[in-house]
């Protein structure tokens, strides 16, 4: 069985490959695609330098692939064209299963960041390929503890709860969807322990013994703050919109689906913070 992992040179891709290896998939059966292939050269798998823009390279890489882990591209605004290349290449190669990492509630949320994921999910379903949709929640690593200690947490999410898990949990869930049966045609909402940003700040403060606070701004002020620290305005508006949607519950999901795929409880946020520190 050949499993191809796109975006394999990113953090999630590497962790997914490590999880596949840990689950007993032979290194010779795994193909990792990405731009900075030196980052995964130590894993012993087959590595190919292929970008999401390279449809011919994708098609060649997918030939004879039994399964593909399709990790979403990382550049908002470019994803639809890039993802179309992946889906069309997978369809041309007639891959046996396409497992895609999407965003929470992609088909119902009004969160701007999820729009490209909703389009991609439709592309996948319309392709006729067997699929699994993994709607990954937020990573604990999105809020670095050392940065929070130095600067505090700032946002516009109010009392909105965020279902958090370490990136490694999502990677392990993806590996499980690839190597175990019964997932074809399913969409999983993945998330772990749910905390507000204020509760997250309090936990970091507890573990470090240093004061860490959360400052809640309105969306416009948060947008201007992000622009002020160097983000392009378009990106700042997208990230501020994530917090707007978070305040309304967009990033809260039950932990059942993640724990079903993991076969164990999701890693507690406190444990993930301790490991990061």
From TrEMBL:
InterPro entries: NAD(P)-bd_dom, NAD(P)-bd_dom_sf, NmrA-type_oxidoreductase. CDD domains: TMR_SDR_a. It comes from the Bacteria. Residues 7-178 form the NAD(P)-binding domain. PANTHER family: NMRA-LIKE DOMAIN-CONTAINING PROTEIN (PTHR47129:SF1), QUINONE OXIDOREDUCTASE 2 (PTHR47129). This is NAD(P)H dehydrogenase (Quinone). It comes from Paractinoplanes atraurantiacus.
